[in-house]
Input
Amino acid sequence: MSLGRTRGVCLVGLTGHMIEVEAHLAASIPGFSLVGLPDASLAEARDRVRAAVTSSGLRWPQRRITVNLSPASLPKAGASFDLAIAVATLAGAGLCDARSVAAWVHLGELGLDGRLRPVRGVLPAVAAAVAAGCDGVVVPVGNLAEARLVPGANVVGAACLAEVAARHGAELDEVPDVEPVAADVVPSERVRGGDMADVLGQRSARWAMEVAAAGGHHMLMVGPPGAGKTMLAARLPGLLPDLDEHSAVEVTAVHSVAGTFQPALGLVRRPPFEDPHHTATPAAVIGGGSGLPRPGAASRAHRGVLFMDEAPEFSPRVLQTLRQPLEQGELVIHRAGGSARYPARFQLVLAANPCPCGLAVGKGLECTCTPFARRRYFSRLSGPLLDRVDLQIDVLPVSRADRASGVPESTADVAERVARARDAAKARLTGTGWATNAEVPGPWLRAHTGRLSPDLERALDSGALSLRGVDRVLRVAWTLADLAGRGRPGPAEVGQALLLRTRGQVAA
Output
């Protein structure tokens, strides 16, 4: 009877749990069983490991092998345990040094030819191992650049199982020189959209976009097709400042789990931009999948922008599930196999036509929709969802005067003002745990703003604004004060914030 041990990491959301992988070999009828709540893909490791060991020139032990993944109460998923199961089995059979194997964390999927295949979520997994005091980690070569982004990690890359076994003392006639398997990454651009100078006219909408960027506010744009709503939304990430170190690591971890991280480009330093199609399912936008759920577009947009074009065309289930992350900045996805938490503090930008035909602007003389069709179309955006959107503006068609008004400001010019406003907010909020005005809760706003203006009082008493709506108007007022270089908002900023909240036209 022999026993081999090593360690792996199980990811639940972005939280990594250290898993002890034990391989028990008994002198009995040969067999291989895997226990410890493995999912279907992990249960298939038995066949992958056996084939990989024999393909590597190592002798498969003809014993009764039982592999336990401890703690047994935690569901495990994925193929990242393949390497740990293989080396623990080889250590139990005496083919590898048991003490050497036990001192390292092993992550990686095995091919039938013994090559190591990259896996998702290596960045948060290695970070969890280092936090638990296990700084020695073996990963596939395809994950090496990503794993080395974790400070304090002693990372070793390997191309095949034979290479790992030889490192742990296995006697091999020859370690094959194989071509490492490259990581399979979903292509994603780090820089999205163009320059603000491309947007002609739309002075009010451009100003509202600057306010949204300066304060991190959610935004709704309503206007006819071709007015420039999509162009403006695509240029919002360019107005946002670079991510700080903590946010960059957090965003990179999400994209590592999602399989959209490109290690060659380093940490994700720019705010991400996600624009799911209106036919996307709740699992695609919010996250989900069989077993433990994967992050969706809302989590991939963490610290960036989630743009929903043609918002009324989205499924009501998708729109309503956005209410939790808009309030809490995270998503908690519950499934029968367990629950997962993903950060989701994004800026939501909604774009909508005023009616099904899109022509109900101005006097609406060209609109062919009935009043009932107009109300039904726009009512797909529920009141509770819109109550969480700080800026709600109309985007009107570009006129001849707008086209002749000269060259608009560039993204760099607007981003400079946004950066100054964000620095002012950050200095004011030092020590509070909040970084932008959009994160500040109501009690702080009401205590530091002073008495509500008569306009806000009337809007609250008439039911035009909820108390949450008043708080969001005050958030925007503080952002307007930061952009103007004032220490606190006055009646002018509060009045302008109220117009931005109620789809009024704003003069910059």
User: Anything to note?
Assistant: The mean pLDDT is 90. The chain has two domains: 2-167, 196-398+410-501. The domain at 196-398+410-501 is CATH 3.40.50.300 (Rossmann fold).
